[in-house]
Amino acid sequence: MSSTDEHAIEATPATPVQAEHVEVDVIDTREGYLAAVAAIAAGEGPIAIDAERASGYRYSQRAYLIQIFRRGSGTFLLDPPAIGSLVELNDVIAGEEWILHAASQDLTCLREVGLDPTSLFDTELAARLAGLPRVGLGAVVEDLLGIHLAKEHSAADWSTRPLPQAWLVYAALDVELLIDLREALAEVLERDGKTDIAQQEFTSVLERDFVIVRPEPWRRLSGVHAIRGGRNLAVARELWQARDGYAREIDTAPGRLVPDSALVAAARVLPDTKRDLASLKEFTGRASRSQIDRWWNAIQLGMTTEDLPVLRPATDTMPPPRVWSDKNPEADKRLKAARAAVTEIANAMSIPVENLLTPELLRRVAWSPPSPADAETLTTVLRELGARDWQLDATAQVIADAFVEASQTVEDPPEATS
Questions:
Q1: Looking at residue 418, what is its pLDDT?
Q2: Which of 208, 51, 28 is nearest to 114 (CA)?
Q3: DSSP letter at 317?
Q4: Nearest CA to 5 among 188, 179, 171?
Q5: Where are the alpha helices (DSSP H) in 21-149?
Q6: pLDDT digits over 98-151, tens only?
Q7: Is the pLDDT confidence value at 2 over 90?
Q8: Mean pLDDT for all residues in the chain
Q9: Which domains, and CATH codes, for the chain?
Q10: Hey, what's the torsion of the CAs at 190, 193, 198, 201, to 10 degrees?
Q11: What angle do CA 350, 353, 358 make, to 5 degrees?
């Protein structure tokens, strides 16, 4: 049992206490919001903050509720769609430490309304670095604070108005415990000598842009790999773009209109008429018939366009490791040796291996190592790829040694014949 596990067990009562809460109100006017800003400014210490989106229900990833707690101020639940920009709040709290759980999930929607921290403590990331076995907010709160935090509304449609009181209580509790949780996690990190490691990771999160722009996003259609032929792919592309445009227009998650499987089925069959499309049993979804003209127009465009997509687009991505032994045996040996060595270091540090060094970075240097593949050169390359100093200190020499070991591996000699 690790020291972290012992700490978690000691901090957990035999019967966790269910968190309770008084009735909560949502602030949805500019006047109420500005009063909240003044109250938050009068508080002290770090800012606990969280955001609720409507993923799976809406097209946008905007925040439909933002929760803030500060000691000396209280709890405030803000309605961003009704209030608008929150730059006044940012002016008041930008210089303070912000506490979020899994900040990478919320920073984009917070920045959309003018909230952008300069100092961060991420309790989910801290829990990973502390080696806790479970890192969800409810689990970490229960392990370290001994409070049972129900999470039954985490996947709710937060664009609902009015929001049910049970949801609001859930949202308030999400932030009201974050400061206590931050203090408990900071003690664990300090005890284990990981405070500087955590700070480097928090800074990396703040510097990252989490908006992903893909050159051909339609190729992420689930099942698109089963489509054969450039014409069929063109139809799949046009159907995806038609659905995406309509979803954006009505702010609804695309999959709730027509699922990926329906678009792929239509692209594979290539129905000859609108009637054929409507009678295709695999073409399902709540908008599959009500918007039949939209989908049929997309199919016609795909059938007539001269801009046919290539079957296999050029990419700089590496093949999956399972085929490395055939495609690049030397790289396969390097990866296996380095992965084993890095995993051993991760276990010794009680840090998940993916947090010690991103698997993608290890695969990149194993597939195409620098020359010379020594610790100094690997450090330079991995830093350019985004590795932090603490990660390089822990892994660069280990990887270099593993590469040397892999290069010296020889095949077993053939058995002697009598």
A1: 43
A2: 51
A3: P
A4: 188
A5: 30-41, 80-83, 87-93, 103-112, 123-129, 137-145
A6: 999 999 999 999 999 999 999 999 999 999 999 999 999 999 999 999 999 877
A7: no
A8: 92
A9: 3-206 (3.30.420.10), 217-304 (1.10.150.80), 321-408 (1.10.150.80)
A10: 170
A11: 140
